Amino acid sequence: MSAISTLVRAGLKSNFGLSLLRYRIFKEKKDIWLIPVFALAALALAPAFYGLVLLLKNLYLALRPIGQERLLLTLGVLAGQLFVLLFGLYYVISAFYFSRDLEMLIPLPLKPFEVMFSKFAVILVNEYLTVLAVVVPVLAVFGAMSAAGPAYWVNAVLVYLFLPVIPLAAVSALVVAMMRLVNLSRKKDILIIVGSIVLIAAVLFVQFAAGRAGNRELSAGSVAGYLASPDSLLSRVGSGFPPSIWAAKALAGGFSPSGLWNLALFIGVSLALFAGMLVLSERLFYRGLIGIGEVSGRRRILSAAQLSGRVSSGRHPVRAIFTREWRLMNRTPIFLLNGTLTVILVPVLIVLLTSTGSDRGGDAAALLRFMTSTHAFYAILAAAAFMTVCGSLNGTSSSTFSREGKHFWISQVIPVAPRDQAAAKFLHSYLVALLGIAAATIVCIFVFHLGTGVLAAAIVLALAAAVPLVAAGMIIDLARPLLDWTNPQKAIKQNLNVLLALAADAGILTALYFFVKFLLRAGLSQRASLAVLLAVLVGLGAGAWRFLAGFADRRYRNIET
Hints:
The protein has 561 residues and is an all-alpha fold. The chain folds into 2 domains: 278 residues, no CATH class; 245 residues, no CATH class. It is 75% helix and 0% strand. It is built from 25 helices and no strands. The chain starts with a helix and ends in a 6-residue tail after the last helix.
């Protein structure tokens, strides 16, 4: 165990880089400006956190009269595990197969399962942070509202510690098996992307099919008997992923026989899947790893005209840099999966969470349809916020410079103005945001059945809001790009700039929310309020772009590589 503990400690230090950050802030005084930035980020997230707690509190109060408040626990646990199941795939592939420290670990006298154990532990710690904002508020609100005793809080800690293990172990086993097959072919990058998409599609299909199978329509005469049990809705919603039912029952049951049994079942299955993953890795890990970094090529004799075309394509600089950015994203599986596909998975996750209930799309979807039928103004704002979040909830813009890594010096020496390079990178990031907005629009059409007028207004607002959010992410990454990373995953998911950008996005959206409330209280009509909001978004976008272009001209040449 000493070798494993040493590997885990080294992996955690490399993953978070807290020692380096502390040295740069307090010794070199280079990043001391991050202290007020962190304070502002916390202030920006506070209103969003308060709104989430208030929403959960109201949901608990709505469920308590019918005795179904335990449903809140299932929703929280299920959402957290789905996040790990879907987004953990990218992290596992990167940490297991694209980490640069593997070049040092493989020659050491370490067994494959020891390397896998240490990397799994690092991923697990990161997933605790991923589900922190999703699960902890649910556990805290339920415990406070129900006046839960010590047994609940003890079980809550245990459930939270083991919550990511089942989905993460399952994903790890699938990835190890997939990479063993991928390594049999020369087209490794393409197969990694295709295989990952197939795995995601399979997970979504199984989850959706299981959820629909467990959500049969209830007859009017059976509703009373169905709601007589406090675990009825809990079991119905969690039928697509049974571990969420075990966790919810363990929390609600406390130290009772039922609570302890479900807790033991939840922990036991978690440990069994983890052990199975280690056994599988002992046999397949190194076989799937060897040769993963090889690049296959073919000889080709170029004519003088073709060689001249390769040297100078004659493209506009912005178009040329955009093409390079596009290829960099698409040719790196981790960048493509973690950046581009994320904007699609968020709407898909919403569909999964709202697919419980009737065949018409679930109780949540039906409730939103009812609200939007009489309050078009709020429907426009809600749909626009949903589209904006789906388009901006990714690390594409806030890692656009960091993704170049140690090769950023090429961007500094090529004869292209920094503002032109920033323009090309902005267009690429905005294109990814458009993909998220399009996916969210599809959800609004087929799940929430929003009207044409509501959709059109929401899309215009979302397109305008995406401009300042994308520019803000790029400005943050340009201020302190993370160029020294050990694996591609660190450039996005472990990049502090991504977290700061998310906080900035939350702060901007929160400020816009209070601005609209101010307009309504000032007596402005709803239509006029939407027009003013659009004008403010356009102004913010223009100002953010102007600042980004000027900042690129000043900052580009001074970045140390």
